[in-house]
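Notebook B, p. 112. Complex prediction, attempt 2.
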Amino acid sequence: MNPLSQAVASGLMSGAVYALLAAGLVLAFHTSRVVNLAHGEAYAVAGLVASALSGYGWPRYAALPAALLAAVLFLTSLEHFLLRPRRDWPVGSLILITLATAFLMRGLLQVVIGVDPLSFPRLFVGPPVRILGGIIPLQGIFLIVIGLGTAAGVLLLLRSPMGWRLRATAENPEMAALLGINTARMRLLAFGIAGALGGLGALLLVPLVSVDYQSGLGMTLRGFIAAAIGGMSPSWAIVSGVGLGLAEALVTTYMGALAQDPIVFLALIGVAVWQSRTIMFGGSVRA
Amino acid sequence: MIKWALIALLAVFLVALPYLGLLPGWTFSLATTVVLQAVALIGLNLIFGVVGMLAFGQAAFMALPAYIAAVLTELGLAFPVALVGGFVITVAVAGLVAGVFVRLPGVYLAVGSLGFGFTVEGLARAFPAWTGGASGLVFPYGRALNEHEWYVVAVVLLVIALLAYAWVVSGARWRCLRTIRHDELAAAVLGIDLTREKARAFTIGSVFAAAGGLFLALYVGVQIPEDAGVTRSLEQIGTILLGGAGFLFGPLVGAAVVNWLFVVAGYGARYELLIYGVAFLAVVLYAPDGIMGWITAVRLPFGGLLDQRNSVSEITVLPPTFDQGAVAAAAGNSDEICLRIDNLSRRFDGLLAIDQVTFDVRAGEIFTLVGPNGAGKTTLFNIISGILAPSSGTVYLRGLDITGLRVDRRAPDIGRSFQVARLVPELSAKSNVLVRLDQIAPHLGERERHHLALAQLDRFGLAMLADRPVKELSLGQHKLIDLARAAVGDPALVLLDEPAVGLTESELLHLAAVLDALQRRGSAVLIVEHNIEFVTRVANRGIVLDSGRPIAIGPVKEIFADQKVRDAYFGALT
C-alpha cells in the first residue's frame, strides 16, 4: 500500500467535507456579517441524529433526510429566532450569541444522545477501490464526488438570479431591501443552505469515522480556517477546504495523528500572518 | 480610594465567610477554588470584559504553566525554578499569540484562541510521559500547606490581583480600552495604537490566567487535559458574562455563583454542559451586564460605588489659569504650507474615486472641500487621515511625506471629526475628549489633561455637560463634542466632516468662533460641508471635486461663482 496515495485519498475525503463547511460558513457570513461559531454543530447534529435514528432501527431513507432536516432547522432557527431580532447589535455580541448556541447544542446533544462516539452504516457498500496503490472505500469515492459536486453546485447557484439576490444582500443590505429583495428571507436561505451543506458532510463522512457531541467546534474551526485562507470568497474557500484536508492527511500520515491539532493551529497562524499584510488601518500598505 | 477600601473590606469578608457557615456547601475547598479561579478570570475579564476581545482559549493559558513546569522538572530543573519558568514561558507564548492575531478583525483572535486551546489539550494528551496524559498530571507540591493556609494564600493572591487589575484599568487606560471596545476606527484616528494596546491587554490578561492556573494546579494537585480545553475556556466566558463583564468584581461573583450552584445542585455532571449553555445564552441575550450590572442597576446601597465602569474620579474645577500653549501645535507663519496633496489618485476596483488631485492648504487657513455626493470627498479625508491608502500620489504634512504613516501616528498632527459623531456612549463628554489628549500629550499629568479637556469643552459652550455620560446627551451635543475632540491640542491640521449638519444657529456660532481661534493659532482646517452659507462665511479657499476630479480651486467666493461648479453642484436645481 502506497502511503502517499492513501494520504491523498483520505485528505480528499475530509477535504470535501471541509469544503462544504467552508462554503456554508462563507455564505452565512456574507449575508449576515456574522461568523457563525455554531456552524459546525450542524455537522454534529446531522451525524448524531442519523446515528441515533439508525440505532432505533429507522430505515435509511427516513433517517438520513430527517438528520439533514435537523441540521437545516438548527441553523435557520438560530438565524430566525436569535440573530434576526438583534440585527442592530455589534458583531461581537452576535458572534457571542452563536458561541452560546454552540454550547447549548453541545449540552443538548450530550444529554439527549450521550457521550459515546456514534456512527451509522455506510450508504454505499461494495469492495474498496484501489487507485495508484491507495485503498478507498466505496463510500469515500462517493463522498469526494458528491461533496465536491455539491460545492460546485453552490458556486453555480451563486450565479443564478437567486444567487444575485443573495450576493446583493451580502454586499449592501439596505440597497438590496430597497430593490425589493426580502433580505431576511435571503439570510434565512443562506443559513438553511449552510445547515444542509454541513449536514450533508456529516452524512457522507460519519459512516467512515464517527461523531460525538463535541465534534462541532472542531468542524467550525476547520471550516473557518478554510474560509479565511480563501479570503471569505466561496470558490476559494472550497479550494482551500480541500487543501486543508490534504495537508491534514499528509501530516497525519507522516507525523502521526497527534500532530493534527498543532498543525491546524500553525496553518491558522500562517493565515493570520499572511492576511496581516493588508491590515485595515495600516496606512503603510499601498493598495 | 473607595475602590481600595472596598477591596480590603471584601478580603476581610472572604476570609471570614467559610468560618461563618452562612452558606450551605461553602467549604474551604470550594472557597479556595473559587478564589483562585477568580484570580485567573480577572485576566479574561480584562481581555474580554473590558476590551471586548474574543479570547476563547484562556483555559489553555491557565493549564500551560503547570505542564511546562512539569516538563522543565523532568529536564532536571529545580522545582521552584521550573515553576517560574512555566509562568514566564506561558506569558511569552501569550504575547506571541496576541502579536499574531490582534492585527486582524476580532474573529481571527476568536478562532486562533480556539485553535490554541485545541492544541494545548491535544499536546497534553499526546505526550503522557511528560504531561500524565488523559489521567492527568500529578502535581503534589501543594500538600505542604493545610486548607486554612491555602485559603489565606488564595485570598492574598486575589487581593493582589484585584489591586493590579484596578491599577491596570485606571484613568487614561480605562478610557483607551473602552474606546477600542466601542469603536476601533475612531480609536485609531484618536491616536491609539490598536495592535499594541490589544496585544498588551491580552498579554497582561494572560499573566492573571497563568498565575491563577498555576496556583490552582498546586492546590488541586492534579491537572487533566480537559483543564486546558476549549470547553473549559468557553465555560469561563460564560462565567465572566454571568458575573458581569468589565466589572471589578465580575469574575469573583461569576466564579462563586457558578461553582456554588453546581455544589448545591449536587454536580449533575450529565447536565452541566446544558445548564451552562442555557445560562450562557440567557445572559448573552437578556442580561449583557450580568449579575454586577443588575446590582448596580437596582441601586443597592453602595451599588454606585461598585459600578467600576463609571467610577473614574473626575476633576471638575476649572483652574483660574492654564497654559494654553502647553500642547499647542508649533504655530507656523501663515505662509507655511501645512498640507500638500500631490497628484493623488485612489481606485476602487473599476471606479476612480480620486483622480489626480493636487492642492495645498496653508497654515492658518480654512480650506473647504466641495462637491456633490460621490465626488470623493470622504475618500480624500480617509486618505489624509490614513484610513485608506492612495493608489498613487503623495500626502505631505508640513513638508514631510506622511503617505505611508499609520493612522494613530498621525493623531498628534491631525485631528478629525466624523460625519456621524463616533463617541463612546458610556464615557463622559470630558473623558471622550480626554481619549485624544491622553494619546497626544502623554507627558502631561492626568490633572493637566483634565483641565485642558474641560477648557476645550468650554470653548464649545459644553463645560456644563463635561461629566455627563455622552449617551444622555442630544445628537447636536454629540456633534459638538466630536468637534471639540478633533480640535483639542490644536493640531497642525483639523479635518471636519460636515461639522455644521444638525447644529442650531447658536451652536454654529460656537463652531465659527472655534474655527476662528484655530486659524489664529496657526492650524490648518479642512472642511467638507454642504451648508454653502456657512462655508462662505468661514472658509478662505476651497476646491471643488466632481467624480474625483478637481474642477475649480481658489477663494471660496470665486469657486462658487464658477459656471462649471454651478453646473456640477447645482445642476439638478437649475
